[in-house]
Each structure stands twice: as structure tokens, then as C-alpha cells.
Design a protein that fits this description.
Length: 185
């Protein structure tokens, strides 16, 4: 457990889908931010993460909770470009804002993914109303748990025990492998 709060770094992205202007985390203070990091070719993202982000977006009022998709590509870079992502977003009818993580020159891991120390996709980051990271989780997380965490943040603004950034996803894939739970860097 990590009880020290960390201010969420700003997203470093190249573009946005479902959004005319960029979103800045500093401008979202007062809201709970649900940052869903995904890759469109990740089985765990398609089966669990994206549907969960969609449900959160549909359930909560944007005045209280802001869902942001973060397309963080760390593999298959040539095929997971903005045009392919636009088609994917349209086909899956995703309505929440989606940021395209900024690539890092000479590295597979994009900038925001590295800044948040994400271990793979899907990853879920909950940011409280003060801009602090309250949860950073790799892999599948039960919808009831996520709803409970968001509800607790909305009702109190605190009291969620942070999950250590180095959490492990039980039953998840080995490093460099993927399954329906996620894709590991």
C-alpha cells in the first residue's frame, strides 16, 4: 500500500478524438477523472476495459466524473495509427474523449504511459477531485470495485487506499505476453 498521494502529471498526447479541444487535468479539478489506458488490439481492453470505460461514461454525469481514454501504443506501432483508431472508435461507438499518447523517440513506451508507470493495457487510473492519483491498476478490475472507488471519491473525496503501482494482476499474462486480462509491456 502506498499512502502518499501523487499529483497526476498532465497528459502528453498528439491528438484527441471525440473532442474539439484538448483536455487538461489541471482544468478538471473538482471532478473525479477516470483515465483508461488501452490499445485497440489488446484483447483485455476490447473485452473488459473499453466496455467498463463506456459504462462509467454513460453512468456518471460529466459534471462529476470525466472519463478519458488514453490510447497508449507500445507494440504494433505501424498499424495502430490515428486513422485506424478513428475507425475503431466509430465502430465501437465510443463517446468519451480519447487522447493519443505521444510516442517517445527511440522507445516503444509512449510518454504518458511512462510518466504514469503503467505496466500494460488495460490500465485504470482514478484521479481525485484535487488531481491526485488514487488508484493505478493494470489489468481487469471488477466493475463493482471500480464503481465503489468512484462512489467513495464522489461522496468523500478521499478514503480510498491506493493500490501500489507495482500491483500484480492475478492470473494475468507473463511479461511480453497477452491474454484476455491484458497486454504486458
Amino acid at each position: 500500500m502506498n499512502n502518499k498521494l501523487t499529483l497526476a502529471p498532465e497528459l502528453e498526447v498528439t491528438d484527441w478524438l471525440n473532442r474539439d479541444a484538448p483536455l487538461k487535468l489541471s482544468e478538471l479539478r473538482g471532478k473525479v477523472v477516470v483515465l483508461h489506458a488501452f490499445q485497440m488490439l489488446c484483447p483485455g481492453c476490447v473485452i473488459h476495459g473499453i466496455p467498463q470505460a463506456t459504462l462509467i461514461h454513460e453512468l456518471y454525469n460529466n459534471n462529476e466524473v470525466q472519463v478519458i481514454g488514453l490510447h497508449s501504443v507500445f507494440e504494433h506501432h505501424a498499424v495502430m495509427n490515428k486513422d485506424a483508431l478513428s475507425v475503431f472508435v466509430n465502430e465501437y461507438r465510443l463517446q468519451f474523449p480519447i487522447a493519443i499518447d505521444k510516442p517517445t523517440t527511440g522507445k516503444d513506451i509512449p510518454v504518458t504511459m511512462e510518466k504514469y508507470q503503467l505496466r500494460g493495457t488495460p490500465s485504470l487510473v482514478l484521479i481525485d477531485q484535487d488531481g491526485n492519483i488514487r488508484l493505478n491498476h493494470f489489468g481487469r478490475l471488477n466493475d463493482m470495485q471500480v464503481g465503489n472507488y468512484i462512489g467513495r471519491l464522489l461522496s468523500t473525496g478521499s478514503n480510498i487506499n491506493d493500490i501500489n503501482r507495482n500491483n500484480s494482476s492475478k492470473g494475468g499474462p507473463e511479461i511480453g505476453k497477452y491474454d484476455t486480462n491484458g497486454c504486458i509491456i
